[in-house]
Amino acid sequence: MKYKMLEGTSWTPCGEFIKIDEEACTGCKDCVKVCPGGVISIVNGKAKVMRYENCCECAACWFVCTIGAIGFSWPKGGTGRKYRWG
Ligand code: SF4
Ligand code: SF4
């Protein structure tokens, strides 16, 4: 992963803000391919969030999953990814 790009940011643990509907997931890997943080992997044919701490909260996984198998909500303020500018 390329998170040297995110130097100067910090991560505060938070709840599971990405929910994958395993019943709906086809294992197409689109979310894996689009994720800049290597956060999601395919496990037993289904997408699984493996590394929340690498997430930059871009929501690309949510947008790319056209069947709606990913639910996404940004972490509460003060948790998750913090950038220098807020
Ligand atoms: S894009 Fe959606 S259907 Fe495809 S692997 Fe990810 S969660 Fe599953
Ligand atoms: S929000 Fe962005 S960085 Fe986080 S898991 Fe989805 S695609 Fe990856």
Can you walk me through this structure?
- The protein has 86 residues and is of the alpha+beta class.
- It has one domain (15-75): 2-Layer Sandwich (Alpha-Beta Plaits), CATH 3.30.70.
- Helices cover 12% and strands 23% of the residues.
- The protein contains 2 helices and 6 strands.
- The chain has helices at 30-34, 60-64, and strands at residues 10-12, 18-20, 40-43, 46-49, 70-72, 80-82.
- The strands form 3 sheets. It has a two-stranded antiparallel sheet.
- A hairpin with a 2-residue loop joins strand 3 (40-43) and strand 4 (46-49).
- The model has no long low-confidence stretch (mean pLDDT 91).
- Bound molecules: iron/sulfur cluster (2 copies).
- One iron/sulfur cluster binds at residues 18, 34-37, 39-40, 55-61.
- Residues 18, 34-37, 39-40, 55-61 line the site of one iron/sulfur cluster.
**CATH architecture title:** 2-Layer Sandwich
Number of domains: 1
The proportion of residues in beta strands is 15-25%
Which small-molecule ligands are present, each listed once? iron/sulfur cluster
State the order of secondary-structure elements, H for helix, E for strand: EEHEEHEE
Structural class computed from helices and strand pairing: alpha+beta
Q: Radius of gyration over alpha carbons?
A: 13 Å
Q: Treating each run of at least 4 consecutive H or I residues as one helix, how many helices?
A: 2
Biggest sheet record: 2 strands, antiparallel
Number of strands: 6
Poorly predicted ranges = none
Side by side, the strands of the main sheet go 1-6
> CATH class, anyone?
Alpha Beta
- Choose one word for the global shape: elongated
CATH fold title: Alpha-Beta Plaits
User: Roughly what percent helix?
Assistant: 10-25%
Q: Mean pLDDT across all residues, rounded?
A: 91
Measure the end-to-end span: 23 Å
